[in-house]
Design goal:
Elements (H helix, E strand, L loop, with lengths): L5 E4 L6 E5 L2 E5 L6 E5 H12 L2 E2 H11 L4 H17 L3 E4 L2
Antiparallel strand pairs: 1-5, 1-6, 2-3, 3-4
Helix pairs in contact: 1-2, 2-3
C-alpha cells in the first residue's frame, strides 16, 4: 500500500469555529468564507492543527472517534479531505 500524500492545514489557518448538535460553523480567516461542516470534518481539521498527517492516520482517528462502517472508512475519509481541500482549508503534499 502506498503511503500517499500528507495532509495539512492551509498555512495561516486558525480554525475559528463554533460547534453544536453535530454541526460546526467555521470561519476561514484566509478567504473570509464561512462554512457549515459536520463533526468528522471538524475532527480532521483539529487533528491537522496538531500537525500534518496521512490519509490512513486520519482514517484511523475517524474510526476511533465515530461508529463508521470499516468498508466506508476509506471512501468517507477521501471524500472529507477532498471537500476540505475544495474549501481551501487543507492541502496535500507528496511524501
Amino acid at each position: 500500500m502506498s503511503a500517499g500524500p500528507t495532509w495539512r492545514l492551509q498555512p495561516g489557518q486558525t480554525l475559528q469555529y463554533r460547534q453544536w448538535d453535530g454541526e460546526c460553523v467555521l470561519y476561514n480567516d484566509l478567504s473570509g468564507d464561512t462554512h457549515l461542516l459536520g463533526e468528522a470534518a471538524v475532527e480532521i481539521l483539529l487533528a491537522l492543527r496538531r500537525g500534518p498527517a496521512t490519509r490512513d492516520a486520519l482514517a484511523a482517528m475517524l474510526e476511533a472517534e465515530f461508529d463508521l462502517d470499516p468498508a466506508e472508512l476509506g471512501p468517507e475519509t477521501d471524500h472529507l479531505l477532498q471537500h476540505l481541500e475544495r474549501l481551501h482549508l487543507v492541502d496535500s503534499t507528496a511524501c
